[in-house]
Specification:
The chain is of the alpha/beta class. It has a single domain, classed as Alpha/Beta hydrolase fold, catalytic domain (Rossmann fold, 3-Layer(aba) Sandwich). It contains 12 helices and 8 strands. It has an 8-stranded mixed sheet, sandwiched between helices. Strand 7, helix 10 and strand 8 form a beta-alpha-beta unit. The radius of gyration is 18 Å and the shape is globular.
Length: 287
């Protein structure tokens, strides 16, 4: 059972005076995969999925600044630094190389980590993220920031909007709206008093997109085997925009997960994690 899995090692690194929390499952005898959090996630959000990868692979998790058990300073955050924190955690654990899988916001971190530290990677997997300027995504980001600015009183309305947008129709019909409410309420409760964390993490995307042209040659230089695994019906980040990354990462494969939205790992976990495991096992886009 997922709730029986506890970290083999757990701790934190110091990041400019702030705490970055990490958890490691395994003894180091196997290759490790780092599951990179989405914006509103934290390490505990992966608990039910760990048995789909462990013990074939060790698993590394960490919270970005503003998430979970990491510090939540109300100051600018850099995705470049969030990615560098992963390498610092790897060094603290004595892990030379990892597989990375970034879902949604975690894809930003995974891409930035690959740009800076691709020599520390076995494979790179991305879902629900982009590496191009897209008007609809920028509108979504701006709307999120407008909601955050309204404060705690209106934050609950934002969470209802978000939970309508991120899931696919089939998933919602299958589990029912009532089943989503506890998830939504936990998100609201977790961040109502620390909305600044969501603001800072969202604002960090401005650096990412603002330096795309400058950094594009470095992204194109990443030859790590890369799997692009979007939800077929993603309404947050349209699959057609995600597919543009095929032209950036030369050693990449497109493998959409059918009949699900932005949270493919939640909506179709068996297919999602089976594909991920097969890809990591093969270390080749031809798996």
């Amino acid at each position: 059972m997922a709730d029986q899995l506890v970290p083999t090692r757990e701790g934190s690194i110091d990041a400019d005076g702030h705490r970055v929390h990490y958890e490691y499952f395994g003894d180091g005898a196997r290759e490790a995969v780092c599951l990179l959090n989405g914006l509103a996630m934290h390490t505990k959000a992966w608990a039910s999925f760990l048995p789909l990868l462990y013990p074939e692979f060790d698993v590394l998790l960490y919270d970005y600044l503003g998430q979970g058990q990491s510090s939540a300073p109300d100051e600018p955050v850099s995705i470049t630094r969030l990615a560098a924190h992963l390498t610092a955690v790897m060094d603290a654990l004595g892990v030379a190389r990892v597989h990375t899988m970034g879902i949604s916001y975690g894809g930003f971190v995974a891409i930035e980590h690959a740009r800076q530290f691709h020599h520390r990677l076995h494979t790179l997997t991305l879902s629900g993220i982009i590496l191009s300027r897209e008007e609809l995504f920028e509108m979504y980001e701006a709307l999120s920031l407008r909601f955050y600015a309204l404060g705690p009183e209106q934050f609950g309305l934002y969470t209802h909007y978000l939970y309508e947008k991120i899931f696919g129709e089939s998933f919602v019909r299958r589990v029912g709206r009532d089943a989503l409410e506890p998830m939504r309420q936990r998100f609201e409760d977790r961040y109502r008093g620390s909305i600044h964390s969501l603001v800072r993490l969202t604002e960090a995307q401005e650096e990412y997109f603002g330096k795309l042209d400058e950094r594009m040659p470095e992204y194109r230089a990443v030859t790590t085997p890369t799997l692009l695994m979007p939800g077929e019906h993603d309404r947050v980040v349209l699959p057609c925009t995600q597919k543009k990354m095929l032209d950036i990462f030369s050693n990449s494969r497109w493998l959409p997960i059918s009949d699900c939205g932005h949270t493919a790992h939640v909506e179709q976990p068996a297919a999602f994690f089976a594909n991920l495991a097969a890809f990591m096992r093969a270390k080749s886009v031809g798996f």
